[in-house]
């Protein structure tokens, strides 16, 4: 089984450049977080839903981005801390964006969150590449 994983891993890193890996892994992480947000939003307000979603999705994202996109071998604790601060900043911006679009403009929460997700993708890539997962 380890041999099969090693072959898949070599193929993954040889076949796809970093930007494509970011889109693929980020797409998976984003979809997982978005589905979780939508499902939890049936039970909780968007305020609570956003916090729960970020707490769960950030950990998935940090580890998958660190290894499967940037192949970082740097200090795990330091990189986790930097990425955590990035995501905390993104959470604050996300909350402000949702407050403006939902409470201010009357937009549906699912649409507002989708818009923010699109807008934040480029910023997140640059932060991971230039700050969080540098070796």
Describe the protein's architecture and organization:
Helices cover 85% and strands 0% of the residues. It has helices at 2-15, 18-41, 46-69, 76-104, 109-132. It has 135 residues and is an all-alpha fold. The longest helix has 29 residues, at 76-104. The radius of gyration is 16 Å and the shape is elongated. The two termini are 29 Å apart. It contains 5 helices and no strands. It has one domain (17-132).
Based on the model shown, name its key terms:
single chain; 135 residues; mainly alpha; 5 helices; 85% helix
Largest sheet: none
- What's the shape? elongated
Overall number of strands: 0
Computed CA radius of gyration, to the nearest angstrom: 16 Å
Percentage of helical residues?
over 70%
Average pLDDT works out at 91
Which H/E pattern describes the elements?
A: HHHHH
Set out the fold topology.
Elements: H1 2-15, H2 18-41, H3 46-69, H4 76-104, H5 109-132
Can you describe this structure in just a few lines?
With 135 residues, this protein is an all-alpha fold. The protein has helices spanning 2-15, 18-41, 46-69, 76-104, 109-132.
């Amino acid at each position: 089984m380890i041999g099969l994983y090693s072959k898949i891993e070599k193929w993954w890193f040889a076949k796809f450049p970093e930007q494509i890996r970011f889109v693929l892994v980020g797409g998976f992480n984003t979809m997982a977080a978005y589905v979780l947000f939508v499902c939890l939003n049936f039970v909780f307000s968007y305020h609570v839903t956003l916090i729960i979603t970020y707490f769960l999705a950030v950990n998935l994202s940090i580890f998958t981005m660190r290894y499967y996109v940037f192949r970082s071998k740097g200090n795990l604790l330091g990189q986790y801390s930097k990425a955590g601060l990035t995501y905390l900043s993104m959470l604050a911006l996300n909350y402000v964006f949702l407050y403006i679009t939902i409470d201010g403009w009357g937009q549906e929460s699912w649409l507002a969150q989708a818009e923010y997700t699109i807008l934040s993708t480029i910023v997140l890539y640059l932060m991971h590449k230039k700050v969080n997962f540098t070796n």
